[in-house]
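Researcher: We are triaging several targets before committing to wet-lab work. For this one, the compound of interest is zinc ion. I'm pasting the protein sequence and the ligand SMILES. What I need is the predicted three-dimensional arrangement of the protein with the ligand bound, expressed as structure tokens, so it can go straight into our comparison scripts without reformatting.
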Amino acid sequence: MKQKLLGMMLLSVFSLFPIQKAQATGPSDLEPRGIFTVVIDPGHGGIDSGAVNEWLGIFEKDLNLEVARAAHARLLELGVHAVMTREGDDYMEIVERTDLAKSIHADLLVSIHHDTDQDWGDGAHLIHSIHEGPSLNLAEEIGAAIVSQTGQELRSFSPYWFQSGMFEGEKDDYYGILRRSTMPAVIVEAAYLNAHNIQAVDTPEKRALMGRAIADGIYAAIRRDFTGIVTYKGIETHYDPKTNTRLVEVEAVMGN
Ligand SMILES: [Zn+2]
């Protein structure tokens, strides 16, 4: 019964998935290991409001959730299996978010945030793992989609923030969600909450557009990067667009 159900799930996902990309390039004798899965993580929640625009009474946690819901819906529309870390206004520790992603063997994780209401903030920026590779490419594709599909620009200084540069000589990521993730992961700071930059997300329509752009960027990154074998933090993934499955999943011994 379980096998039948899984077969039906694979079939339905396959029929929704419109990628026409050339054949996967990896070894052909590998068995599928499950559906390629994206985790969308709306940052903060519950007692943790994140950044606040007190003048407008806007909390970052609410913006994050609304944009994340739009991104999630768009991924499903594109035929990509996507899971949210929180569906409501719930508090979650960072480790709970990354544990969830690991437990479902997620292939990508995108954490959605908005930044401070300080005046100097002037655009979206994306923070990727110091491990780069698929993580950097994911950041680039999401950034490009935000610029092309919304009125939002990338921040005028260092739009892609290399975490290794934060503390000279550090061998691991500064941000917990990137450090604790075992799959390529990116933090999206979609807008600053100051009076000027909040205009990128100050209506439900603009928030829907932002979420859609983030999802389209994720989709572009999947097509760009995961049709061959990708190694990230010692874990290999190989995506087969024909069946929407990952073919290789090698667990590696990770540090903390
Ligand atoms: Zn945040």
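Researcher: Any quick observations?
Model: Residues 204-225 form the longest helix (22 residues).
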